[in-house]
Amino acid sequence: MNAPVIGQPIKRKEDYRFLTGSGMYTDDVTLPGQTYAYFVRSPHAHATIRSIDVSKARAAPGVIAIFTGDDLARAKVGGLPCGWLITDVNGQPMKEPPHPPLAQGKVRYVGDHVAVVIAETLNQAKDAAELVDVDYATLPAVVNAGDARKPGAAVLHDIAPDNTCYVWALGDKAAVDRAFAGADHVTTLEFTNNRLIPNAIEPRAAVAQYSRGDDAYTLYVANQNPHVERLLMTAFVLGLPEHKVRVIAPDVGGGFGSKIYLYAEETVITWAAKQTGRPIKWTAERSESFLSDAHGRDHLTKAELALDKNGTFLAMRVITTANMGAYLSTFASCIPTILYATLLAGQYTTPAIYCQVTAVFTNTAPVDAYRGAGRPEATYVVERLVDTAARETGIDRAEIRRRNFITQFPYQTPVALLYDTGNYEATLAEAMKLADVAGFEARRKQAEDRGKLRGLGYSTYIEACGLAPSNVAGSLGGRAGLFEAGEVRVHPTGTVTVFTGSHSHGQGHETTFAQVVADRLGMPVENIDIVHGDTGRILFGMGTYGSRSIAVGGTAIVKALDKIVAKGRKIAAHMLEAAEADIEFDRGNFKVAGTDKSVTIGQVAFAAYVPHNYPLDKLEPGLNESAFYDPTNFTFPAGSHLCEVEIDPETGQTRIVNFTAVDDFGKIINPMIVEGQVHGGLAQGIGQALLEACVYDPESGQLLTGTYMDYALPRADDLPSFRVATKETPCTHNPLGVKGCGEAGAIGAPAAVINAIIDALAPLGVRDIEMPATAERVWRAMQNTRELKKAA
Amino acid sequence: MEMTGEQLIPLPQEATWRALNDTAILKVCIPGCETIEQVSDTEYQLTMTAKVGPVSAKFKGKMTLSEVDVPHSYTLVFEGQGGVAGFAKGQANVRLTPESEATKLGYTVKAMVGGKLAQVGSRLIDGVARKIAEQFFSAFNKHVTGTAAGSAAGE
């Protein structure tokens, strides 16, 4: 097998089982003696629990046990931890309120966990849950980030009497202030980055089992990082020895960030599995997912850009309030800080940037990373500012970008990141060609003749992926390492099993990683299986998020492959009676340089396991190697997204007529999978821009968008056929030259869509519009400017 | 949720007032009402089943009368717990004025729902409330007159 494998659009190996219903998801796991858990949740956004009477429920048919917060407190079960410490501008650590898995004394959002009912059947658990009598004394609620710090606002946690988790800042404020004072032009925008609900196809689920025989637990859970789940649960919450807990994340049907975290449900049932002596299953209903999966985004921002008379960016000032929800989810604190403010340089040479972020608690579901995680919010700030500045200064929108693009690499931004490589002009030029920008004015004119408004929007984004150098993360408050582990097992007959800490829940790792191994070892993809998602089988893993799998997890595998080849070379030297230095490895064959003597890797593997003729005095048998890889820098995927919309001025309905994405993900392993990832990301980014909004009633704190009737996910007919292409500037600091592609679509798209809508509406005098730009909002924006014009 | 409406009750004002305070009549006329019990001069406890879209729940609740001005007006504060379906609470202001032989009944209802009812039912709640009101008055008029002669003039 000699054809190159890297760069080939090989069909996904995993799709056969997904498409034929032979996947094994958590809810498919059924254990002997299994029981079912149902959680009693708060119907109130904020209330004191006066009492909980479980006596009737306990007597209901089929009930095995009922636990409340008091039971957990008595058993000394800890609170759910936050994995990232942010230090306040006053030098104090952020406020970390207790996050009990079952509420103690108070509930703080609709959906907060109050009690768990465990019964023989799910229906018995649900029926008994009806009988749990909770006496609540309701309290006023605060919902919007902008209201949380107002005097008189409801207070969620005693340790944060002003509902403030932290006030954090990055950048040289004095330099920024000086630059603004001397600027020729300042562009200012204020906007909301709308709260989103993740909506993976598979809801969260868990099955927990305790084995009395060996005092050990097994937890099946729909999760993106089983080792992290195990570490957090054992060390911080349940106080269990880590080696007695096996966490398996089998097939997982989408995560988008929402399955990174340690949640109350799996923690409670793992604990309860020992109490009851029975395996326990919990699968979220869709309503529970809406209520209790960690949400995304939810920022209020005032952003300013200072320019000189040539349109050169001088400085940027960004003041953001970020909604944390009622408690700190696992990585909540680092999303609007470390993964947001550091990206505000975008693709530009803005020399001075200052960002201040105030994180607040509200009576809403916890907010954490959601596809893009901080970077879509940053891109939206930068790209809306740049577009608006172009409009205000009369400079062409592509030209103002080109004038400010970073062109020299490596480039140290004023917000802590060191970009290793990129070619922003090339991606923009390619995108403009693909999108036929030259023909846009003609298309706009044609649309006008049909009574439609047409607009073109740019978004030239950057993201920091491949999270992350552990020492950098640690210096910024990270409480975990961010390396990855990989193990390559070459079996005696020459087939290969790879064990990776990168979990796959839709990304296609089983194919992409197999291509990397096939390329390095020179064997067919079919001979390679990728195993992931099981702490019992895999060395260790930090999991899948931040588009890190190929850059970090893939590199760990490459490092292990290097060790396989190095050992294979030694074995081959012995077999071929040559010096090790003379052995070359090429596409599956170990050769003596300059001769036709060679052995295949299969022969080497066989010799390693049947070491009859083998240098046992110098070399261990077997061909199994592992590696941990800690990256030296982030990777910096970047691209140009161009959106073209047509708006019906009578209804405000926006139709995306073209969407072009040219992305630089470094080297591409499987272009078909990359394209799929881009498509999915774009759909979610367009969803945020046009359709999706999580809405709580501002007074009662009730979730008003708790179904698909009210929360509008994008559907196929909301999306155009995407024009997608890539430019490759290989990453300079990992052996594959890869950067990661999972989040790009969701990062670049929202600003491109809104910039396109503003381009269409600008002739009417519309300068800004909030996301999601629904037909109603667009129509109102047009009406408002018409009325303002009439009044003038 | 806010709802205002007017109904013409084919009874004189005093009789209308009495009927509105008669638990036996209320039990028959409130849609889904299973029990209603007067526990004090101003307090009632009741259980009723209501359906909001896909959510059907049995509510246990209480109603409290205040600002009673016999036979002209009163305020009714209500609160019902529907278990895992959530809760409903609110108040109704009711005014009676004579209109020839009959009585004009004007009402303003403010209500909110919580929990699953709010999640899946917010957009439906206005329609459900209006329907419950219509059913109540239609049954009420029918009951007090013994005929189906009641006229509905709800807003």
Describe the structure.
- The complex is a heterodimer of chains A (792) and B (155).
- Chain A has 792 residues and is an alpha+beta fold.
- Chain A is built from 19 helices and 28 strands.
- Chain A folds into 3 domains: 18-139 and 201-254 and 259-292, Aldehyde oxidase/xanthine dehydrogenase, a/b hammerhead (Aldehyde Oxidoreductase, domain 3), CATH 3.90.1170.50; 299-407 and 417-467 and 633-791, Aldehyde oxidase/xanthine dehydrogenase, molybdopterin binding domain (Aldehyde Oxidoreductase, domain 4, 2-Layer Sandwich); 483-629, Aldehyde oxidase/xanthine dehydrogenase, molybdopterin binding domain (Aldehyde Oxidoreductase, domain 4, 2-Layer Sandwich).
- Helix content of chain A is 29%, strand content 22%.
- Chain A has a 7-stranded mixed β-sheet with strand order 3-5-1-12-9-10-11, with helices on both faces. In chain A, strands 7-15-14-13-8 form a 5-stranded mixed β-sheet, with helices on both faces.
- The model of chain A has no long low-confidence stretch (mean pLDDT 97).
- By secondary structure, chain B is of the alpha+beta class.
- Chain B has a single domain (2-143), classed as Alpha-D-Glucose-1,6-Bisphosphate, Chain A, domain 4 (2-Layer Sandwich), CATH 3.30.530.
- In chain B, helix 2 packs across helix 4.
- The longest helix of chain B is centred in the last third of the chain and has 21 residues, at 125-145.
- The A-B interface holds A 40-44, 110, 126, 129-131, 287, 290-291, 697, 700, 702-704, 706-707, 709-710 and B 83-84, 86-87, 112-116, 118-120, 122-123.
CA distance, first residue to last residue of chain A: 75 Å
Stretches of chain A where pLDDT is under 50 for at least 5 consecutive residues are: none
Determine the strand fraction of chain B and express it as a percent band.
Answer: over 45%
* Reported CATH architecture of chain B: 2-Layer Sandwich
Q: What is the gyration radius of chain B calculated from CA atoms?
A: 15 Å
CATH superfamily of chain B: START domain
Major sheet strand order of chain A: 3-5-1-12-9-10-11
User: What's the tally of helices of chain A?
Assistant: 19
Give the total of beta strands of chain B.
8
Oligomer: heterodimer
Name of the CATH class of chain B: Alpha Beta
Residues in β-strands, percent of chain A: 15-25%
**What characteristic shape of chain B results from the CA principal axes?**
globular
Helix content of chain B: 25-40%
